[in-house]
Structures are given as structure tokens and as C-alpha cells.
Structure prediction request, 344 residues.
Amino acid sequence: MRWQLMVKALLGSAFMGLLMLLVNQQWGSWMSSMDSSLSSQKAPSEDPLVLSSRKYEWETQTPHPLDLRYPYPYPFLINHPDKCGGLRDAPFLLILVMSKPQDVGIRQVIRQTWGNETLVPGVVIRCLFVLGLPQPLFAQKLQDVLEEEDKEHGDLLQVGFLDTYRNLTLKVLMGLEWMAQYCPTARYVLKVDSDVFLNPIFLVQQILQPNRPLKLNFITGHIFRNSTPMRTQGDKWYMPPELYPKNMYPDYCAGLGYVMSGSLALRILTEAQRVKAIYLEDVFVGLCLQQLGVKPTPSPPNTFLIFWRKYDHCTFDRLVLVHHFQHQELLRIWPDFLRANTNC
Ligand SMILES: *[C@@H]1O[C@H](CO)[C@@H](O)[C@H](O)[C@H]1NC(C)=O
Ligand SMILES: *[C@@H]1O[C@H](CO)[C@@H](O)[C@H](O)[C@H]1NC(C)=O
Prediction:
């Protein structure tokens, strides 16, 4: 009886082996026909998508300390979805002030001076302070202060990334993302730093001109042309060749403040999803503009000052921005600035 079983088993396994062999052969020829049809579609290794995702993998494995994580779904932690008042009351000008969590006093000065939304008669202005997360050491205390401040003024926009100079590009882009989501019909958008003197009256009446047709593809400020990346390590604007290998930047508007049409702001944001983000936000906006084929529009001479200038009523009446302006000084000169001066 036993040998009968053994013969059966042997025959059985031989049969199975034969079956497997056949299946294997079929499978193999089927696979190789797939292979040849794939390779006839030509050189998948030259696909730019494949290359860029490989580059992305490398970057996530060994991120450069100056590299930015973008696009990325950072949350709005303090938000005002209704700040723009819906689509019908679209503001003429949306001001996005780049602010640091700890700069509570500076924000207060800005609210009392150029951040006042009712400064320019007949024009709807909305002003928001964009900030990130405080340094972990002070986080909880400062967060409580920020929430109190926001309860009182309702003008903070806090985004969930660490607030550092090297993350400024994220701040600007998240400001634009907020605009795209909650204020897409704003006519113009101003990105401005918080250490400036701003003359919103001159900006609105002389540069943007509410009575004229909307300017399309419009962005202006102090334009830097033919500037080259800083390659000295330790420099404030150091740009490692690994992150930006070219030896020249495109034309761009200096970061202290630039104003653009709302529609262009939205196009910049779309382009920013494709252009590799670099930490110099003004250069990065320039790179997006270059991709869009848009050139910055020159502003009237001496209206966007990248260096500090001593206050003088008649000069400040006819300019938009002055960089490196102390907030105590701003508070001091503001009443005089608002006073009509007939001697100019
Ligand atoms: C803003 O300006 C208006 C008048 O132009 C003034 O009544 C108001 O007090 C100002 N707001 C702040 C916060 O200073
Ligand atoms: C930018 O923010 C991210 C997210 O909070 C953080 O992990 C990173 O360290 C920050 N980068 C720099 C250069 O500060």
C-alpha cells in the first residue's frame, strides 16, 4: 500500500513540476513582450519627472540646513477667514506685514500709524500681520500673549512653522496662500516688512491710482538688476551653490516692500509650487516672475528707499517706503506727517 502512495505522490509532484514549468514559460514570454513594448516607448530615464522626484528623495534624506519645506500644508493657527468681507467688498489693497511673534510693541505702533486701515479716504484697505511659531523656549507664554492680542485687534495670521529669518519665504508664500483662499479678489497686495516707514496715501493715490483701470501683471518696488548670489559663508544673504547654482539672479523687487496686482499674486503662488523655493524671499518671487515672463515695473525715482532717510515732511509726502525706520521714530513723526503741509 505504501509504495502505491509513494508512486502517486511522485507522479503528482512530477505533474505539478511540469505545470509550473509551463506556466513559468508562458509568464516569462508574456513579461518579455511587456518589457519590449515598454522600452519601445523610449528612455524612461530621461523623463524630467523621474529625475526631479529622485532629486527630491535625495533632499529629504540629507536636507540642506537652508533648504525650505515647500509646498507643504502648513496650518493657519490664528486666522480671520472673514477679514476681507467676502467677495463683494473686495479690498482695493491688502497689506501683508511680515511680523515676528515677539514684536507685540512694533505691531501696536504700526496699527497706530501706517497700518491704520482707514487712512486713505474712499479706499478699502485690509492689513494683516503674518507670523509663524515662537521659539520653543518661550512658546507657551508668547502664544497666550498672541491670542490676547488677536482677541483685541483681530489682525494676526499665524502659520504653523518656526518663525526664523531663513523661513521668511514660507511666511510670504503662506500670506499669498491666505489671500488665494480668503481674499482672492483683492485688487492689489502689498508685502511689507515691519521695520519701515510706509506712506499708504502716496502708494494708493500715485502708484496704484484707484480711478484708473486695474494694472495687470503689475509688480513694483525697488528693483535689483543683475545682482549675483553671495558665496561667502556666514554672510546674511549667503546662497550655497547647491541650492542656487546660477551666477546671477533675475530682476527682483527688494524685500522691504513690493506691491503687485492681486491676479499676479495668485499667478506667483501657482508658479511657486513648481519653482524650487529658496530662503531669500524677494529673489524667489523674482524667479517665479521670470518663469511667468513678467518683468517688474520701475517705480518713480526715490519712492522705495532701501536705506534709512531722516524724516522730512516734504520728502516723505512723495515716497512710498523707507527701510530701517525705528518704530519709536515712526510714532514721533506720525502726527507731523499727517498734518497737511502747504510749504512743500
Ligand atoms: C485710524 O485713523 C482714524 C482716522 O483717520 C482714527 O479715528 C483712528 O483712531 C485711527 N486708528 C488707530 C488705531 O489709531
Ligand atoms: C522652518 O520651519 C520648519 C517647520 O517649523 C522648521 O522645522 C525649520 O527648522 C525651520 N527652518 C529654519 C531654517 O529655521
Notes: The radius of gyration is 29 Å. The CA atoms of residues 148 and 154 lie 10 Å apart. The domain at 76-338 is CATH 3.90.550.50 (Spore Coat Polysaccharide Biosynthesis Protein SpsA; Chain A).
